[in-house]
Amino acid sequence: MDHVRAVLTDYLEANSCRKTPERYAILEAVYSQKGRFTLQELNEILLKNNFRVSRATLYNAMKLFLALRLVVKHVLPGGTYYEAGYRNGNHCHRICTECGRSDEIRMPQVVELIGSTKIRRFHQDGFILYIYGVCSSCQAKMSRRKASAKKKTTKKKK
């Protein structure tokens, strides 16, 4: 957390911006989260800590944190989510295209392969991989629907 606060402080000082308590409170709330969160969830956390910020302040702070790469933004089928950027390195997400559920998965071979890949005229310093497909729960529901539809057409033929 000290390093993340230092990145923000250095940027604010270098660009003659105010070091407001709101920015630091939002940053603390972001890094107190485990995994992804929405802006609504982040606002609720701030309110639980008796720290009220306007929606504009929250959006502006997140925009700044994104630019500083302190936060990562995920646009997923279920909505827009954010997560802390500094403690969450290279990783993979699986996303169900039916229900929108997503979760982080461990794929050390993929992480190693992409990490060791040299890209011409480009310095790679991190990645997030999204794998889209259909989860087992949705596959089961789809199979039941197909079986049910097949039974109905068989009954009609008789």
Could you explain how this protein is built, in words?
This protein has 6 helices and 5 strands; from the N terminus they run ααααββββαβα. The model has no long low-confidence stretch (mean pLDDT 88). The chain is of the alpha+beta class and 158 residues long. It is flat, with a radius of gyration of 21 Å. The strands form 2 sheets. A 3-stranded mixed β-sheet has the order 4-3-5, with no helix packed on it. Strands 1-2 form a two-stranded antiparallel sheet. Helix 2 crosses helix 4.
Quick summary:
By secondary structure, the protein is an alpha+beta fold.
Distance between the termini: 70 Å
Tell me roughly what share of residues is in helical segments: 40-55%
Question: In terms of structural class, how would the helical and strand content be classed?
Answer: alpha+beta
Silhouette: flat
Q: Uncertain segments of ≥5 residues (pLDDT<50)?
A: none
Strand order across the largest sheet: 4-3-5
Oligomer: single chain
State Rg: 21 Å
Q: Helix and strand string, N-terminal first?
A: HHHHEEEEHEH
Which whole number gives the mean pLDDT? 88
Tally of helical runs: 6
- Number of DSSP-assigned strands: 5
Give a quick account of the main beta sheet: strands, pairing sense, barrel closure.
3 strands, mixed
Relevant terms:
flat, 158 residues, 6 helices, two-stranded antiparallel ribbon, alpha+beta, 3-stranded mixed beta sheet
Blueprint (SSEs and pairs):
Elements: H1 2-14, H2 21-32, H3 39-48, H4 55-67, E1 71-76, E2 79-84, E3 91-96, E4 102-105, H5 108-116, E5 128-133, H6 136-157
Parallel strand pairs: 3-5
Antiparallel strand pairs: 1-2, 3-4
